[in-house]
Amino acid sequence: MTTETLAFDICSYNFEAFEKNLKKLAQKALKLGVAPPSFEATGLKTVTSYHPNDIGHFSPIKTLFYEISLSPGEAVKYQGWKFIGVLEAIEEGQNIVKAVPGEEIPSSFRVVTEQCDHCNVTRWRKATYLVQHENGDIKQVGSSCIKDFLGHRDAQAIAAYASLLIAFYDGCDGRDDEEEYCVRFGSGFCGLDIEAYLCHVSASIREYGWTSRGQSYENSTANDALDRYFRLGDYDPKVSKNEGVALWSEKDTLLVKKALAWINDKKEKGSHDTLNEYMWNLCLAASKDEVRVQHTGILASLISTYTREEERILKRELETKNAVPSEYFGEIKTRYDLVLSCINVHCYETAWGTTAIHNFLDEKGTSFVWFSSSKILDQGSSYSLKGTVKKHQEYNGAKQTVLTRCSKINEVERKESS
Ligand SMILES: [Zn+2]
Predict the structure, then answer these.
(1) 76 CA → ligand 1 middle, Å
(2) b (16+ CB within 10 A) / e for 155-191
(3) What's this model's pTM, rounded to 2 decimal places?
(4) 16-72: per-residue pLDDT in tens?
(5) Distance 181 CA to ligand 1 centre (A)
(6) Do 193 and 265 belong to one domain?
(7) How far is the CA of 397 from the centre of ligand 1 (A)?
(8) pLDDT below 70 — which residues of the chain?
(9) Residue 383 falls within a domain, yes or no?
(10) Distance from C-alpha of 307 to C-alpha of 198, rounded to nearest angstrom
(11) Residue 401 sits in which domain range?
(12) Statement to judge: residues 211 and 238 lie in one domain
């Protein structure tokens, strides 16, 4: 019997499920005549996350976590084993890897077949589980055999699982979404068209900005895109178009194609032991024409990951061309005609609507920023515009010129570096 207690942070979204599962487990333990698990709430904390951007003005998203101290009770299981993660097969021997926080899964498990080391049966399984012995041995087991290792839903495993739900990038899906859609669309439903789903993601990001599932499950971009995707099934797209509902634009299609080409190139050039776990999982999630509902979180992150990468490339390109640090531009309160390359756009929601933060560089590598509530420009495009210099500010040691009242905005062809 373990007397030590374990500390866990459980996201408020998962807390109800955690409590319910722990109660069930306690009842089971009592029936079996073993010490039941219990927990004590030790505190509350708010975790503020910011979407990475380089001007630091992005709206914070607060997530509430319960801090708990768990007494696992007496586990009905083989002694010495713990749950360390899940392998989800995309195809034979190609696994998306989900590790319990704090546990490390050797990269070799990314490419193992769906076998069970316990009963030695190899058959197609959507998921296999990894358990680790105190002596370091790791076993891969099927869902029916895992009970032998972890007991009747071992307390520790449940708590770890609840943390796992939010900790695993964004990809881990706590709901039985897939089953729900199978009921709705028939058992033949196996996945979403990747390009169409990503176009919804791109359109959602343009409208509301990017929100990960870790930040907010219900309001996440991945879920908004799911809603958009399935709404499409209910309506005739042509009718929606007539009603003025834009599903997505050509720019979204183009961005999605570029992002998919980029990630497929990563997969071709990388391998299970050169890519980091996130990139490996992303490569797999994007490798088919269809994506399972439970992998939409990972897949959705492709768009923001790719746009950050594109931003880095654009910036590097413009900076190496100039090789001088950014200087302030112009006189405050003066209006100028400018030609600027938009190197990134971040949107966020306010009580008054969406605000887009645009970062620009001009030909000389001068850095500009413009907060707009009226227009959202495209990352990677260049524009001619009229704007007033509002102020000069330093951000991360770099000099930035803040623009206001930008107008006469027209897209111009971007000059390739010569
Ligand atoms: Zn088995």
Answers:
(1) 18
(2) bbbbbbbbbbbbbbbbbbbbeeebeebeeeeeeeeeb
(3) 0.63
(4) 777 877 787 777 667 666 677 788 888 888 766 544 333 444 445 566 778 888 776
(5) 28
(6) yes
(7) 57
(8) 1-4, 28-29, 31-34, 47-63, 72-79, 100-102, 150-190, 213-218, 231-246, 319, 321-324, 349-352, 414-418
(9) yes
(10) 13
(11) 335-412
(12) yes
Ligand 1 centroid – CA 141 distance (Å): 5
Distance of CA 167 from the midpoint of ligand 1 (Å): 27
- β-strand partners of 335: 388
120 Cα–ligand 1 center, Å: 6
| 329, part of any domain | no
Taking the centre of ligand 1 as the mean of its atom positions, its distance from the CA of residue 114, in whole angstroms, is: 10
Task: Output the six-digit token pair for 372.
Answer: 């707009």
Strands (E), 219-366: 290-291, 335-350, 353-361
Question: Among 337, 259, 343, which residue's Cα sits nearest to residue 55?
Answer: 343
* CA of residue 315 to ligand 1 center, whole Å: 51
CA of 144 to the centre of ligand 1 (A): 6
How far apart are the CA of 298 and the centre of ligand 1, in A? 28
Same domain (yes/no): 134, 50 = no
70 alpha carbon – ligand 1 mean position (Å): 29
